[in-house]
Amino acid sequence: MDVVVVESPAKAKTINGYLGRNYTVVASYGHVRDLPAKDGSVRPDEDFAMDWEADARGEKQVRAIAQALKGAKTLYLATDPDREGEAISWHVKEMLAERRALKGIDVKRIVFNEITKSAVKRALENPRDLDPDLIDAYLARRALDYLFGFTLSPVLWRKLPGSRSAGRVQSVALRLICEREAEIEAFRPREYWTVEGLFLTEAGAPFSARLTVLDGKKLEQFDLADAQAAEAAKRAAEAARYRVSAIERKRIRRNPPPPFTTSTLQQEASRKLGFSATRTMRVAQQLYEGVEIGGETVGLITYMRTDGVQMAEEAIAAIRGHLGRTFGQDYLPPAPRRYATKAKNAQEAHEAIRPTDIARRPEDIAHALTEDQRRLYELIWKRAAASQMASAEFDQTSVEIASEDGRIVFRASGSVLVFDGFLKLYREDRDEPAEDEESRSLPAMREGERPSLTEAKPEQHFTQPPPRYTEASLVKKLEELGIGRPSTYASILQVLQDRAYVRLENRRFVPEDRGRIVTAFLENFFEHYVAYDFTASLEEKLDDISGGRARWREVMREFWRDFVRAVEETKELRIADVAAALDRELGPHFFPDKGDGTDPRACPRCGTGRLGLRIGGNTGAFIGCSNYPECRYTRNLTSSDAEGEERLLGHHPETGEPVHLKKGPYGFYVQLGENTEAPAAEEAGAKRKRGKGKAAERAPKPKRASVPKGIDPASVTLEQALAWLSLPRLVGIHPERGEPIYAGLGQFGPYVKVGNVYASLDKDDDVLSIGLNRAVVLLAKKLDSVRSLGQHPDGGEVTVRRGRFGPYVQHGTRVASLPKGAAMESVTLEDAVRLLAEKGKALAPPRGAGKGTAAGKGRGKRATAGG
Q1: CB 332, CB 388: distance < 8 Å
Q2: DSSP symbols for 431-484
């Protein structure tokens, strides 16, 4: 029996169904080991030697693979067909070799672009060895990212207290967002006017046209600069008589877009479906790994991390056959369409994202899919099918209407859709709305005809600032610059939000002040390393390594030599120098012109001091007065005074109690009811004097719930607040444990729990609507690290858990570590009770627990129960 290793259990289940009894398919659960998150894991002085460390889950999976290999002849490493997949296979092989589990085993690498029976069997018939160049490229990327972060982040912490870590690619993406925000702040709208003419043809048909020539001169955008100029143009236009001086008609074609790559899928899913990049990739992974349809697990799409736009010939033939049968031959171009990517540094190692079988129409399999899966599959299916359809055709007409002397000209244009072609199936969205070119038609006219002008309408306009980046437009920009790779875009955007460097408002990125300060610091003191061309050139070098055109250690030596020199140059940098540089850079942002002639930097307290950016050793950046210490005026960088004010959201529909939005030390929260005062001080004091114990029992505190991370406090509604206050809610019964699963909000954000095991929700999971299946998936990994041993003699459950410093047993709030070398699996209830009695100690409360705000008690409970 041979063994096949894949990444995920879903993928293992699908492939196991294809291969039968002669194969054992085992999941590695992604990477089995990684660089330890500590200094020294990559050592430049030893020619970039690396230390690798497996966590408990990785060790467990490698043990399972080693066990499966007993009696096997061949190990097939079938991880994903990209650089990261090659690395996972390499790690698995190395760990098995260290265990001496490969003696007499033939190790082969197989790849497939889609999880179908034919693709998997074809891969088994064409195995290869591990690709050393792809592995070297992975090693170089990990070393680069590690050294960049672990070398530059301490500089940030020392010179810019309060900042978070810096990442090689994330810092460049953050720079894009911050630069766009600076453009918007510096933008000053400029007024301009246009004149729209309303005409009637000789037959009485109405149409409109734009004034393009005045006094014999072509009008540029700002030629009609104010209302007076526009009114003069209106009078001149209304005084003239007109004729049709020219008509231009032409047939234009619009070709379909190519099938999806990773970035275009993320862009279009963001625009059409409102999905984040992370959500898109998670759902695409599910479609790729397989969904159960008719009792069989089927992979529905090809591999979803790709920058290639080409499709296999058999896939093109199948799509064309389906289109011909469904829409007719008119909707097929004479020859198949073949696409080439325009993305910078595209590798095109894989096909575009397409359905594995075009015959599986979205409507036919919708019953087997979740709503997210159905919507994304439909998007992929339609895009791939449309890419092989005929062009859409329009009749475009342009008409010029000139005055008798030719010194005034109006122009009208319109398009009529004469053949819908691919538009019958698919229309691509845009980040910025544009006029629909097939929606406007012109009435029939002939040259020499004399239409009458019924009215000339001046219209005022103002120039608009550049738009903030959406997830879609930022991914597009990163791809254009050659920064990052298909597998990295989702994580780049997520890290920026997790570090609170940016936030999403109306689906557009807004940089936080923390993010702008970090970007300004890097631009001032590490400009070369956040330059777009430098980051793109590193990507090119990584591609050269994967293609065998460069050696990875040589690339690392070149990078490290210059990078470490740049870091050394900042050692003598004083925090005051940093503050001065950032004050110059960000002054227009923190002290914008008030428009009334007053100095925006004037201190509001002393009147003579000048406000500027300051950096405190513990507090980080803030605004302070130059007259310190005589004047101690300070203010935080972020949030206006109004942001912290209490706001009444409404009243509970049943009890009539007020619901408020408030801000406490731990962030925003909602509260049901008013704060109740304790008994009068005199009464309480008298009771204490009489020795009657405590003062009268405290009145119950009003119910509170934290506002989830990522929610704009200004947008919170009464309905949302009531929903959060109703938590925790019952999700359902765990299918294996038979215990209820609850969803709620806690100190670390939204979570699901079963028993006393907690799992945090992902960014795209909604605590108010998460279903049973998703909750079970989130809890699976946590449950793997917690095992119930039974009931303690004194009552209450005893568990054994995997902790940061090793396994331990727990009973209530009492814990005891296992002896060194003891495995979780070997601990019995009797062992645990004895350990707790001999070595048990109270579990430390979480930092900040019990400080009575933003649902503090609930937070403390979760942290204690969850370990």
Answers
A1: yes
A2: SS----TTS-------TT---EEEEEEEEEEE--PPPPPBHHHHHHHHHHHT-S
Query: What is the torsion angle, in degrees rounded to the nearest 10, for the CA atoms of residue 608, residue 612, residue 614 and residue 619?
Result: 90
Fill in the DSSP letter of residue 41.
S
- Token look-up 């231009």 returns 248
Amino acid, single-letter form, for residue 515: G
SS3 548: coil
Q: Which range, 203-207, 505-509, 808-812, 838-842, is most confident? A: 203-207
d(CA 660, CA 779) in angstroms, rounded, equals 33
- The pLDDT score that the predictor gives to residue 349 is 57
**Block residue for tokens 């693709």:** 119
3-state helix, strand, coil in the chain (%, to 5): 40, 25, 40
CA 414 from centre of chain: 39
Chain-centre distance for alpha carbon 593: 34
Q: Across-strand partners of 321?
A: none
Comparing CA positions, the residue from 674, 675, 677, 676 lying closest to residue 651 is 674
- Widest distance between CA atoms in the chain: 108
Mark 250-284 as b/e (b = at least 16 C-beta within 10 Å): eeeebebbbbbbbbbbbbbbbbbbebbbbbbbbbb
Which residues contact residue 374 at a Cβ distance below 8 angstroms, ignoring those fewer than 6 apart? 362, 366
426 noted as active-site residue: no
Tell me the residue type at 794: D
Contacts of 772 (CB under 8 A, 6+ apart): 731, 732, 733, 741
Domains and CATH numbers, the chain: 2-130 (3.40.50.140), 140-187+467-568 (1.10.460.10), 191-247+398-414+450-462 (2.70.20.10), 262-386 (1.10.290.10), 575-638 (no CATH), 785-867 (no CATH)
Kind of pairing, strands 611-616 and 291-293? unpaired
User: Cis bond leading into 629, ω under 30°?
Assistant: yes
Among residues 732, 729, 750, the alpha carbon closest in space to that of 740 is found at 732
CB of 822 closer than 8 Å to CB of 814: no
The CA distances from residue 256 to 134, 321, 343, 424, 556, in Å, are 34, 18, 17, 11, 42
Spatial distance between the Cα atoms of 587 and 580, rounded to a whole number of angstroms: 10
Half-sphere exposure in the Cβ direction for 791 (13 Å, CA): 4
The reported pLDDT for the residue numbered 646 is 64
- pLDDT tens-digit readout, 417-474: 899 999 999 988 765 554 444 457 899 899 999 999 999 999 999 999 999 999 989 9
CA distance 367 to 330: 32
Give residue 213's pLDDT.
97
Burial-class residue 437 by CB neighbours within 10 Å (0-12, 13-18, 19+).
middle
CA–CA gap between residue 388 and residue 375 (Å, rounded) = 21
Q: What is the pLDDT of residues 148-172, one digit of tens each?
A: 988 888 888 888 776 767 788 889 9
pTM: 0.69
Which residues are paired to 419 by β-bridges?
393
Q: How many helices (H) and strands (E) does the chain have?
A: 23, 33
Asked if 412 and 441 count as a contact pair (C-beta separation under 8 A), the reply is: no
599: three-class secondary structure by DSSP:
coil
Catalytic option among 303, 489, 529, 751: 303
Cα–Cα distance for residue pair 380/62, rounded to 1 Å: 35
Instruction: Give per-residue pLDDT as tens, 744-799.
Output: 888 778 899 988 788 888 876 778 888 887 888 888 777 777 777 888 888 888 88
The residue assigned the tokens 């509604």 is 717
DSSP classification of residue 486? T
Q: Name the strand (E) or helix (H) holding 327.
A: helix 313-327
Q: Beta 634-635 vs 749-754: how paired, if at all?
A: unpaired
Compute the mean pLDDT over every residue in the chain, rounded to the nearest whole number.
85
All residues at 6 or more sequence positions from 762 whose CB lies less than 8 Å from its CB, including other chains: 278, 282, 778
